[in-house]
Specification:
- This protein is of the alpha+beta class and 168 residues long.
- It is 34% helix and 27% strand.
- The protein has 5 helices and 6 strands.
- A hairpin with a 2-residue loop joins strand 4 and strand 5.
Length: 168
């Protein structure tokens, strides 16, 4: 016996790569000629990891970016949607079938993908999305990130010239 523990994150990465392979085949067979296909992008599994007894990650394709996870047997009778609790909060997923992968749960982040000029931009957005999903909603980091970048302008103070006073 080697005493090595299984690498569960490696299993999640492998599952994400298999799913990416299915989407590459779908892209070549059915999506490439559609007007929602962004030729600047490819198919990539980003940030796949173990989470709460299952796997989750972001699937980037030339036509969508989704949070995806395998649909467990426990969800077989859930209908077409279900809510899953993440550290950041509850997220609604849609159940569907993807080729040989079987049933998956997915939550759309972007579709179509024309706001991404290249794969690096899409990958960076996917990495930020999975990091945000795993960030506890009440953590200091989450509160800091979700604060507005600037303070809202109070109309009454603006009209009284209060903004000018703060600057000087």
């Amino acid at each position: 016996m080697t005493g090595r523990a299984p690498n569960l994150d490696a299993d999640a990465v492998a599952w994400g790569e298999l799913l990416a392979g299915s989407y590459r085949e779908i892209g070549e067979r059915a999506m490439r000629d559609l007007p929602i296909y962004n030729d600047a992008l490819g198919v990539e599994a980003v940030g796949f990891r173990r989470f709460d007894g299952t796997m989750v990650g972001i699937m980037v394709t030339p036509w969508f970016m989704n949070v995806v996870m395998p649909a467990s047997a426990a969800w077989e009778n859930s209908g077409t949607t279900l809510q899953i609790r993440f550290p950041a909060g509850d997220i609604e997923f849609t159940l569907s079938e993807v080729g040989q992968m079987g049933r998956i749960a997915s939550c759309s982040l972007f579709s179509p993908m024309f706001q991404f000029a290249d794969m690096a931009a899409a990958r960076a957005t996917a990495e930020a999305a999975i990091a945000e999903l795993m960030l506890p909603a009440d953590s200091e980091e989450a509160v800091r990130r979700r604060e507005p970048a600037t303070t809202p302008i109070d109309r009454r103070n603006f009209l009284r010239g209060a903004l000018t006073e703060r600057r000087g």
